[in-house]
Structure formats: C-alpha cells, structure tokens
UniProtKB/TrEMBL annotation, chains A, B:
<dbReference type="InterPro" id="IPR023753">
    <property type="entry name" value="FAD/NAD-binding_dom"/>
</dbReference>
<comment type="similarity">
    <text>Belongs to the NADH dehydrogenase family.</text>
</comment>
<feature type="domain" description="FAD/NAD(P)-binding">
    <location>
        <begin position="10"/>
        <end position="326"/>
    </location>
</feature>
<keyword id="KW-0274">FAD</keyword>
<keyword id="KW-0285">Flavoprotein</keyword>
<dbReference type="InterPro" id="IPR051169">
    <property type="entry name" value="NADH-Q_oxidoreductase"/>
</dbReference>
<dbReference type="GO" id="GO:0019646">
    <property type="term" value="P:aerobic electron transport chain"/>
</dbReference>
<dbReference type="Pfam" id="PF07992">
    <property type="entry name" value="Pyr_redox_2"/>
</dbReference>
<keyword id="KW-0560">Oxidoreductase</keyword>
<dbReference type="GO" id="GO:0003955">
    <property type="term" value="F:NAD(P)H dehydrogenase (quinone) activity"/>
</dbReference>
<dbReference type="InterPro" id="IPR036188">
    <property type="entry name" value="FAD/NAD-bd_sf"/>
</dbReference>
<protein>
    <submittedName>
        <fullName>NADH dehydrogenase, NDH-2A</fullName>
    </submittedName>
</protein>
Length: 405, 405
C-alpha cells in the first residue's frame, strides 16, 4: 500500500484592510475546506474603514460605525485568525516573523496598508496627529474637544487652542476639514466659544488643492469650505511642525494646538525592513500582482505600486483599487494552487472618485460625469454601502451602512 | 404744589448661584414694579447647579442639563441683569466695582459663592482640576476622555494616563468618584482599554471619608465604590500636586495624568479683597444675615459663616442652606425698606443630606432615617427637582428635571 502525503498549502494573509479582507472572503468562498490552510494576521481583532475615518476624527460619526469585529465578517471555521503585529517577512525561508511568534507560508499576501508620509518635515511624529487609524481618529477628536473645553478656563485666553491646521489639501485633508468645518458651529455652541475665535487652515505645498481633480470641482470644494471659515494656504510648504504650531517655508509661524498631518501615505515600513526593493514602502508589482522575483508573494493595496501606463504615473492608493487587486489576487492564488502558470493580469477599473465635504456636501466624478452637492453625497454613501455589501452582504449594510438620503 | 422726590432704592445682588437666584425670584415676587430697582450681577448669562456638576465632570450628564439662561428663569422686566465680574465692594461709598463698570447700591446681597480650598498644598492650581463650574466640569470630562484616547496610540504605554486621583473624600469627592467609577467600564469599552489598567484613588487627609456622615452610610459608600475599583487612601495627606501626579506626606508618589481637587471650599476672594473681616473668605454673619457693622449688606450662601450653636461648629456650605438664607434675606430687605428695624433671625432647617454614588446608588439621611441604594437615589433626584420647582415652577422641572425612577 502506498501512502500519499497530502500536505495542504498554507496561505498567509497579512493585514485586515480592504485588500486583506476581500482576499480572505474570496478565498474562503472559492476554496473547499480541505484545499488550503488560510491564516489572516492583523494587529487588532477588528477591521476598519480607513476611508471613513475623517468622520470619527472630526467627531461626526461614532468610531464604532467605522469598524467591525473580524469574526463577525469572516468565517473563522475556514480562516484562522491571528491577532499579532508583523515584524518582518523572511522570503528566503518563507516565514513571517510576528511580535509573538512566526508563521510558515506557501503563498503570502501582503496587504499591510500605509503609514503617514512626512516628506522629511521634522516634528510630524512628535507634534502632529498623523495616524489614520481608529485609535488615531479617537485621539484627534478628543484632543480637539479638550482644547475647546480648556479655553474658557484660562485667565489669559490662548487663541491657538482654537486654531486647527490640516497639513495637506489632498483627498484625506479635504474630507477631514469638510467634516470638521461642518461641526465647528456645534462645538462653539457646546463650549460657549465665539465662532470667530476658531481658525481653520489647510496648508498645501503643491500649487493646487485636490491635485488630479477637475478644476471646477476643486473650486466648488474650496468655495464651500471657505464659506465655512476655512483658510487655504496653497503653494505653501511647511518647514517644521513644532510644539506650538507650524513654521512655513517663508519663515512665518502659525500657532496652533492642533495640527493634523494628511499629506499622503507611503507603504508599510515592514516592506523595506524585509529587504524588498521598494519606493517609499511600495513595491512595483508584476502585472499579476506578485513581487518581482518572488513567485509566491502577492502585494496588494497601499503597499503595491502600479503604474498607469496612460499617463506613466502610479495609480493613487485607494480602497477601490485595493479591493479590485484582492479579487485578482484570490483568483491567481487559486490558479497557482491548481498548478497553472498563466496568471490573470490586474487592470484597475476606476468607476469614479467622490470626496465628501461634510454635511450633505460632496464632489466627485463618476464615469465622465461631474457631481456636486447632494447628488455627489448620495453617490458617496452608496459607494460606502457597496463596499459593506461586497464584504458582508446585506446584513452588514443594514448594521453599519449609511443612509444616503 | 409740593414736589416729592421718589427715588427708588437700588438693590444689587452679586452672584447668580442658589442664593442669588432665589433672592432674585423672591424679591421680584414680593416687591411691586415701582418699589425698587433690582440688579443682578453675574459672570455668565446662565445660572448653573453646582451640586450637579459631578455628573457632567464625569461625563454622565450633558452640561446643558445643569445650567439655564438667567433670562429664562427671571423676569428681566423686573430685574436688571448685568453680565460682568465683581472686582471689589466699596462699602464706604456703597459701590460695587465691576470689571467693566460700577454700581451704586442701597442694599447689597453678596452671594458670590466659593472657590477651591487648597490648604496651602503647592501645585493645586497649576496641575489639578479644581474649578467646580460648568467650564471646569467640561474640562475635566474632556481631559479624561483625551487620556483614554491617547493611551492606545503610544508605543510605550503610559499607565498613568489611566490613573485618576480624587483629592478629598468629602461630599464632592465621593459624588464625583461615584459617577466616574460608574462610567469607567463604558470608557474602557469605547477606547479598547482593558478594565484593570484603570486605577482610581480617593486620597483624604482626615481620618475618615465623608466626615459628619453616619458610619454605617460611610461604610456602605466605601464598599460600593471599592467594588467598582476605587482605592481609598484615608488619613493620607497630600504634600504636593506635581506635573506627574501627587506626592504624599509619606514621600510616596502616585503618578497620574488626572488629579481632581475636591477637598472643600472657601468663600469668594472678593470678600477679603473688599476689606471684610473673614475666615477663609467667609464672613461670620449676624443672626439676620447682615455683615457685622454693615446694616445694608447681606451675605448669603458659601460666603456666609454661620455657627451651629448645638455643636459650636459652622454649618457646612450647602445649597439647601443657601436657598433658605435667600428666603430670609429677601424678607429682611423688604422689612428694611418698609422702615422696620426688627429683622427676621435666620435658622436653618436641615431636611436631610443625600449623596449620590453614581448609577442608581446613593446614601443619605432624611430626618432621622438612613437611606441606601435606590431609595436614597430616588430622594436625591426629588431634592434636585424640588429646587427647580422653587426656582422656576413646574415648567423648569419638566425642562431640566431628573427622572427619579
């Protein structure tokens, strides 16, 4: 009698962001119980919606609404979940080193997400809020409310307590100031602060806000935000973030107790620590999403650098692309497991981009159509709900979804 | 034809606390439109319930519920309201100096309330929260929430962010820790903090908590609070409040980011600045509540020192006594105006004392009866509602009252 050893391949997924979660759901649907051991590693036992975090950070949505327990979305009979932090990937021995252990893999999916890009400006990590996470959003919110609460208790009122600086007029910075400017009148009322005492600045080094957006939409957004009291400083690099505010390249200082850093992201620092060739933490992936030279390692989401051939520039790291990458990645792993050598090429299908501006306001492009105001806001909420649907079906939409009306 | 000059007397009321507000309502009811000019001076255009502030400070009640606009309670056709701060009383020229003006008076009622008593401990004003005001309560609440929000963002977790010290185990300290200990589990849940990381201390220099309370009630309160995780340090004076916590007389240090000072109060500093003979900002008043040697100046509330002859010690400064003083004061002013020389003697009628312990818990004495738990909690809320009724009738109870069930 012949004994055949049937070792199931180990698929390890790093990170439970948009990419990791969609890969996990797809794999657990496509693979039978006995085809593979799938393990998902994540720092927290919850998944959260990075693209919604500007809302709890500004205090307009409960942070609970932006996250869900991993076990409530994934079938943990099919996927093993390990709560731990990734320290390093050792591709030579096909191991992942965790803070409290290690894992062997046959196939690895790296969806470790992003970190704040400081562009070398000193003081960002020490004096600015730069963590676009559930913990980070809660801290920004509570910090701002604490400054408002302190103000009236001072014998000599320090107006910088009520000065709020957002560094970066890109997507994240604009969405955050949109929410915050919408909430400021309410904060003023609650803490007995005269409205004119609150100063809001958006400071951007580039020559325009929302680079890449249609100029008409950019103007709409800026007009709207200015009407709510936001002051834009465009073409105005920040030299340093200090304990008391920011110093501009011009030498001027703006005093502020709250500086929120939103100038863009880079990939995970684990990427560089693990010896991959990378640009700002992002690996330029093969058309099938594998890391060059590593046939068993897929890179998805913010850690993947993908060139848009049409304009010869990288695609921006968005949730939309991360989710589409996850679909292709799951299919390609299945193909590899079946011994296939011809994998699917990833091609993003950009359906549109909508930025919320707080309240019932938003701007965006869907297809070739420009959207403003309530219409754009409606579409934005539909996009958010669509993601919940893809991840967890109608039940999750009902539980965490947003009313688009 | 004879011309008779009818100058109406000016009655000036300083402070819109329990005493000032009740005096104002009584005078406006008892005096006809043309009998006197009544002016109420207060720092804010709202009146607030000092005895409720432990609730918004702990975050269990909206600060809005503890205050009301003065114009919503008083008839400003009958009483002139001046929003200003009192700097000094010049009894020799019968003037009150305000920050932005001055007022002449024929009769003066001083109800300026209290300030924190530090007993000379250094660092209290710099490093502890000691303002038992609406602004102060909001600051304590937001400070605590901010520390909870910061905790999980630290690479090296600093447990002192989650250490909460209440200095003083008297009425205020116990009511505050009661509310806070009730809320801590909820805070832990919201900010993903393990419950055991939160430390709560009540530090008291005297040999007992709640001095003056029945020992059986004190034990009930301490057992209850200890079960919620509060650690008592009785007979344990604080030597100094520092930037990092408190230093005890023993030399030990407890590190804490939050120190709330609740060791009792003294009268307003305006009293001493104005040259009245006073003990810790309190004037030992005549039986008719006038300041000795000043026939036209009444002192009520926390600025009045009144000896309980039975035990030869001062009555504690409570809302109950302030309100009763206000009734007598209003009557005596009316008597004086009518040319009377024999004024009413003030005699407090202590109906009972109930301390809330958070949630549905309280302790107290009403008449000779000791009350615990839900029963005491019921009575406490009835007391709170009764005050609203006295001040503004059933409408105010409906608007700001507490559900006793």
């Amino acid at each position: 009698m012949e004994v055949i050893s049937l070792k199931k391949p180990s698929i390890v997924l790093l990170g439970a962001g948009y990419g990791g979660m969609i890969t996990a759901t797809r794999l657990s649907k496509q693979l039978g119980h006995n085809e593979a051991n799938i393990t998902l590693v994540n720092k927290h036992d919850y998944h959260y919606q990075t693209t919604w975090l500007h809302e709890p950070a500004a205090g307009t949505l409960s942070p609970e609404r932006t996250r869900m327990e991993i076990k409530s979305v994934l079938d943990l009979n099919k996927i093993k979940f390990v709560k731990d932090s990734v320290v390093e990937i050792k591709t030579d021995v096909k191991k992942v080193i965790l803070e409290n252990g290690e894992l062997d893999y046959d196939y690895l999916v790296v969806g470790l997400g992003s970190e704040a890009e400081t562009f070398g400006v000193p003081g960002v990590h020490e004096h600015a809020f730069s963590k676009w996470t559930v913990n980070g959003a809660r801290e920004v919110k509570e910090h701002i409310e604490y400054q408002f609460a302190r103000y009236n208790n001072m014998t000599e009122k320090r107006d910088e307590l009520l000065t709020l600086i957002v560094a970066g007029a890109g997507f994240t910075g604009i969405e955050f100031i949109g929410e915050l400017s919408e909430r400021v009148p309410e904060l003023c009322k609650h803490y007995d602060i005269p409205r004119e005492k609150v100063k809001m600045y958006v400071i951007e080094a580039a020559p325009t806000a929302l680079p890449g957006f249609d100029p008409e939409l950019v103007e709409y957004a800026m007009n709207l935000l200015e009407a709510r009291g936001v002051e834009f400083k465009i073409n105005c690099p920040i030299k340093e973030v200090t304990e008391t505010g920011v110093t501009l390249a011009s030498g001027d200082e703006i005093k502020a107790e709250t500086v929120v850093w939103a100038t863009g992201v880079r990939g995970s620092s684990v990427i560089e620590k693990s010896g991959f060739e990378a640009m700002r933490g992002r690996i330029k992936v093969e058309p099938d999403l594998r890391a060059p030279g590593h046939d068993d390692v897929f890179i998805i989401g913010d850690c993947a650098l993908l060139i848009n051939e049409e304009i010869n520039r990288p695609y921006p790291p968005t949730a939309q692309i991360a989710m589409q990458m996850a679909e292709t990645c799951a299919e390609n792993i299945k193909l590899l497991m079946k011994g296939g050598s011809s994998l699917k090429t990833f091609k993003p299908d950009i359906k549109g981009t909508v930025a919320s501006l707080g309240g019932k306001e938003a701007i965006g492009v869907v297809g070739t159509r420009k959207l403003f105001g309530a219409q754009a806001n409606f579409i934005k909420k539909m996009i958010d709900n669509r993601y919940l649907f893809l991840l967890g079906g109608p039940g999750l939409v009902l539980k965490k979804g947003k009313n688009p009306l």
